[in-house]
Amino acid sequence: MKSLIIVSHPSIETSLNQQFFKEAAKSLDVTWHHLEKCYPDGEIELEKELALLNAHDRIIFQFPFYWYSAPAYLKVWQDTVLEHATKVLKQKELGIVLTTGVSEKEYQAGGKEEYTISEFLRPFQRIAHKFDMTFLPPFVMAQFMYQTEEKKWERLIAYQQYLTLEGQATLANRIDWFIKQLRDNSSLREKDQVKQEHIIEYLSSKKEELEDLTFTLRELKG
Question: Where do the Flavodoxin-like fold domain residues begin and end (predicted)?
Fold first, then answer.
């Protein structure tokens, strides 16, 4: 599975969020596609975009949450491309990665923003259904600059999984994903490789415990 990250941001070089995402995506088999950089004149090349969509399985719209929607470039992209994209989008996945300077807890009834982020993203969900796509739960990065280093590392891994994890984001699947990332890391020194194998063994044992527990719960329900 390959992911296409369609990024829209007018000042990406000074965006801490987008630079964080870009660095996190470097080690993955994904395509980073920044609209403002590719089309500085705003003229979207239809055939190029259709070819990109056709070559990928998971399409990600990534943008800052400007006035409860996406930046203008992404809207221009939609107006140019979607009308012609029925065949290339059918049965693929659509995900949304958005950043906001407002705390995520404010997006709810009684919060400052009153509505949930999912409610604001209804048009994107409708686009997915229109093209017979699977709409993924949105990935939200809220108030990045206020997060601790530990929290940023957690979000980095979560973002990488959002881009590349196949199937449902169950704990077992996330463990498998993490083990694969460790095994694919060929740059470790010998002493670090020993530590890595211990980590893999530990994660594998925990996965087996989880599967045993899941089986037991199913038996009890049955």
Answer: 1-161
